[in-house]
Design brief:
This protein has 221 residues and is mainly α. 76% of the residues lie in helices and 0% in strands. It contains nine helices and no strands. The longest helix has 30 residues.
């Protein structure tokens, strides 16, 4: 039944998907945290930039963002992100696009967590002489992260599924291999089931684990 799988490296394709998810998740968490800090900043310029970035980027289709990284950054401006070969360039551009897009959702999830921190705590921190970055780093963000593990898990799961868009610029992840197999083989339903099961194996354990973590670290009010 599965003889048609010979010649196709499923594990390698899903490994690329895992790498896309991992690198993009790290980048999105870092950039999303910076954006969240900007959105609650007392500096109007930073607050305006954070608000504009989130409202613009999250309303652009991800496919447009990914294609722009290839056509706009690479082919037009010659941006290679330090890579030499075409495969690595496309991979890094896909990570950049996924990071730029997903960080807007991380920002909003984290901002909702920041809003759950009692105002009295920040006022008390300022009263003892802490400045805004110190209040954010020592008081607000630790509690905010603990309260949004669940929403961030949903963002991570969505990111895992969104990596399929990277096939649009030639990244050899799972969706790209699925398209090749559908074009070359007659087992359409079986191929679809195999890849659907593969993504379930990636997303379901992640959701269950982070759901457990959310219950363990949630802030008691």
């Amino acid at each position: 039944m599965f003889d048609f799988l010979e010649g196709y490296d499923l594990l390698a394709a899903f490994w690329v998907t895992v790498q896309l998810t991992l690198y993009s998740a790290i980048g999105s968490l870092v950039w999303g945290t910076v954006l969240a800090a900007m959105r609650v900043s007392p500096v109007p310029l930073m607050r305006g930039f954070g608000t504009a970035y989130v409202n613009i980027v999250r309303n652009i289709p991800l496919t447009v963002v990914i294609v722009f990284t290839s056509l706009g950054l690479f082919q037009t401006l010659g941006v290679t992100l330090g890579a030499k070969d075409f495969t690595t360039i496309n991979f890094r551009l896909a990570v950049l696009g996924l990071t730029a897009y997903t960080s807007s959702f991380v920002c909003e999830a984290l901002r909702s967590g920041i809003n759950t921190v009692p105002v009295g705590q920040t006022e008390a921190a300022r009263a003892i002489g802490l400045n805004f970055p110190q209040v954010l780093r020592l008081i607000v963000l630790p509690q905010a992260f603990r309260s949004v593990v669940g929403p961030l898990a949903s963002v991570l799961i969505a990111l895992t599924k969104n990596t399929t868009v990277a096939a649009a610029i030639g990244v050899a992840e799972a969706a790209a291999l699925m398209r090749v197999m559908i074009e070359n083989e007659a087992q359409l339903i079986l191929i679809s089931v195999i890849f659907a099961f593969g993504f379930i194996c990636l997303t379901l354990p992640t959701g269950l684990f982070l759901g457990w973590v959310s219950k363990k670290v949630s802030v008691r009010r």
